[in-house]
Amino acid sequence: MRLLITGATGLVGSRLVEQCLANGHQVHYLSTRPSQLDRFDKAQGFMWNPLEGTIDINCFEGVDTVINLAGSSISKPWTKKNRKLILESRIKSLETLRKGIQSLDNHSIKSFLTASAIGIYKEDYNNKLKEVNTEVADDFLGSVVHAWEQEANLFTELGLDPIILRIGLVLSSQGGVLPSLLSPIKASVGIVFGNGDQWQSWIHIDDLVQIILFLSQKNERGIFNAVAPNPVRQKELVRSIAKALNKKIILFRMPKLIVKLIFGERSGLLINSHCISASKIKKTDYQYSFATLDQALDHIVS
C-alpha cells in the first residue's frame, strides 16, 4: 500500500505513520509546516494549507489509500475564533483533498477514510448508540461533526465512498485525555464530573490505528464507531486507572453546575453520556487487542 495521511504529526497520525512504515507500506503525508517535512525518516512529506485551499498535488502520486485525520483540537477554549478554526480546519481539509483529487487527470486511489467523532450522537444514559442512529446532538460539537461528515460524503462524486470513523475517547500514554487523569490519581485523588455515571466510550490508540488499516485494506464503506466493545461509567474509568497504578484514591465529585461554570459549553465533553456500540466493527471480524479497559490501562501504564 501507498498511503497519503493528513494529521500525521498528531497523536493518532504519528502512531499510524509508524505502524504503516513498520508494516512495509509507503507513506506520503501532508503538513502545513516546512519544518515537519522531514519528521519521519522513511515517509515523504508534502505541503498544504487547507485554510487557503492549497495542496501539492504530487502527494497523490501512486497513492491507493487516503486517510484524513486533520482537524484543530477541540480541547482548547471554545472562543469565537477557536470555534471557527475547529469547524473550518475539518471542512476545508476535506474540501482541499477533494478538489486536489478532482484536479488530477487520473489517480490510483481506491480507499478514502476520514476521522469523525462520537460527539455527533445525542446524550444517552440508557441505550447503546449505533451507526444507524440519525439524531444529531443539538450542541456545537454535534453541529461540527454533522457538517464534517456531510463534507466527507461529497467524495462519492469522485467515485470514492468514504469510510467514516466516529472515534471515541482515545487512550494513550503519549497524549489525549489520559495523562490529565493520571496526575490527580497519582496524588491519591480521583475526580469525576457530575455524578460520574455517564458512559465513556473509549479505545486504545493501537486498536484505533489497526482499525484504520484494517478497514482501509478491506475496502469497507460507510460509518463505523471506532470504540472498544466495553464502554464504562466515568467513575469506573477513574477507579480502573487507580487500580492500574496500584493507588488508593478518594473519589471527588465535581458538581455539574461547577463544571459548567468552569468549562462553559465545553463541559459537555466531561459530563455528557455516550454508550457507543462497537457491533459493526466486530462484524468485520476485526480482533481487538484491548477489548476491556483493564487490558488497555495495564498495557499503557506498564
Summarize the structure.
By secondary structure, the protein is an alpha/beta fold.
How does this model look, in words?
The protein is α/β, with parallel strands linked by helices and 302 residues long. Strands 4-3-2-1-5-6-8-13 form an 8-stranded mixed β-sheet, sandwiched between helices. It has a two-stranded parallel sheet with strand order 7-16. It has a two-stranded parallel sheet with strand order 9-12. The radius of gyration is 19 Å and the shape is globular.
| Overall geometry | globular
Instruction: Report the strand count.
Output: 16
Query: Helical segment tally?
Result: 10
Q: Report mean pLDDT, rounded to a whole number.
A: 94
The helical percent reads: 25-40%
Enumerate the strands of the largest sheet in spatial order, edge to edge or round the barrel.
4-3-2-1-5-6-8-13
Strand-pairing-aware structural class? alpha/beta
Query: What's the order of the H and E elements?
Result: EHEEEEHEEHEEHEEEHEEHEHHEHH
Distance between the termini: 32 Å
Task: State which percent range the strand residues make up.
Answer: 15-25%
Point out poorly predicted stretches: none
The largest sheet, given as strand count, sense and whether it forms a barrel, is:
8 strands, mixed
Tell me the radius of gyration: 19 Å
